[in-house]
Amino acid sequence: MTTKQLRGNRRYALLACGAVAAFLPGTRSRCCWRQWPLYLLFELSVLLARVFEYRARRARRGQMSRMNAGRCVRASWGGCRRK
Predict the structure, then answer these.
(1) Contact indicator for 39, 17 with CB cutoff of 8 Å
(2) What is the pLDDT of residues 1-31, one digit of tens each?
(3) Element housing 26 (H / E)
């Protein structure tokens, strides 16, 4: 799953957290208080996934620029220019 999918399905995550909290032992009024820490853990995981996804994308971009640093790219007029 991508972070975009996780962010798009937040309402389902909230529903799932409510369902899990409802099955934990205790009174119904405590159900609401148990739901929010579960949802906050979900949001924290989405935030961490975005950070790691950003770092991986940035590392891939840096690796590609190092690979292409010495290559000669054909220009439209037939000459060679450095990229």
Answers:
(1) yes
(2) 888 888 899 999 999 998 998 888 877 778 7
(3) none
Query: Using alpha carbons only, what angle is made at residue 10 by residues 6 and 36, rounded to the nearest 5 degrees?
Result: 120
User: Do residues 56 and 64 touch, judged by C-beta distance below 8 A?
Assistant: no
Residues 38/20, Cβ–Cβ less than 8 Å: yes
Within 10 angstroms of residue 39's Cβ, the number of other Cβ atoms is 16
Q: What is the 3-state secondary structure (H, E, C) of 16-59?
A: HHHHHHHHCCCCHHHHHHHHHHHHHHHHHHHHHHHHHHHHHHHH
To which residue do tokens 């579960």 refer? 38
Q: Which tens digit of pLDDT belongs to each residue from 19-63?
A: 998 888 877 778 778 889 999 999 999 999 999 999 988 888 877
Segments making up each domain of the chain, as ranges: 3-82
Q: For residue 74, what are the β-bridge partners?
A: 80
Q: What is the pTM of this model?
A: 0.66
